[in-house]
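Q: Sequence in, structure out?
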Amino acid sequence: MDLSIVVPCYNEEGSLPLLFSAVDEALADSGVSYELVFVNDGSSDETSRLLHELPTPASAERIVVVDFSRNFGKESALLAGLQRAEGEAVGLMDADLQQPPATLLEMYRMLQANPTADCVAAFQEHRNEGAVLSFFKHAFYKTFDATSRLNAMPDASDFRVFRREVADALLSMPESFRFSKGMFAWVGFETLPFPYTPANRVEGETKWSFRKLMRYGIGGVLSFTTFPLKKIAAVAGLVATLAGLVLLVEVIVEQFINPAMPSGYPTILCVLLLMGGLILATLGVIGEYIARIYIETKRRPAYIAKSVEVRTGNERE
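A: Exactly. Output:
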């Protein structure tokens, strides 16, 4: 098998028939033997039924359909797809056709044309998004690189094609809190950038709200750096100490200028509130890391597969 195409799906009933046709059209005459690995991430629509009933594209060697028992998230779906991919190269793409199969084939050709490269990662040169969202994404990558000491490719998505060695390296990482962009940066390997322009969604709306993106980004930082755990208490303590010294100097100067002036109650209250806030913020960061340790020590699986179907033509397993 030359290529395994992993496609996580969550409520994609409107795009799946078009996706099957687009994949077949793009790869039918390519000379590339490929399989499709679909992971149904607990969809509440007809996604599961369509994955099992739509005819296998004529050019595909086989189709694998993994049904989760509930929604476990995209990272778990990618893990399940990697575990069942058998190709010498693996491609990741979404089911909404914003990442065209024809582009995936171009990325595969680029990988094959560069024997020293291990991965080709697509990125958007021009994003059609608001200034606020763009600012936060840029700030996230800067923060991630600075705190984790990794070099995550800015604006790179999960739309990638990579060799079997990269897939095996990703599968060797057993953590529950998975952050694919950080994992690709951590395992290393030579990665080539591939600029592309995403197509319009054929159906529905994006599942990623600003709130979900923020939570995903914060989780990614916490998964790949201990910087907040080690530094926030030290920095907060230093700031509080400096503020206390400045306040002490101010009180001493005021006593020399006007010995009869009483100490200010508002000042004391502000200092208490400041110190209380710093302590609670520090405990919150420590709590985040302890919670992750607690979850990891349970060794729960990243997902539960309700069923796995392997289909070759009309034959089903």
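The longest helix spans residues 265-298.
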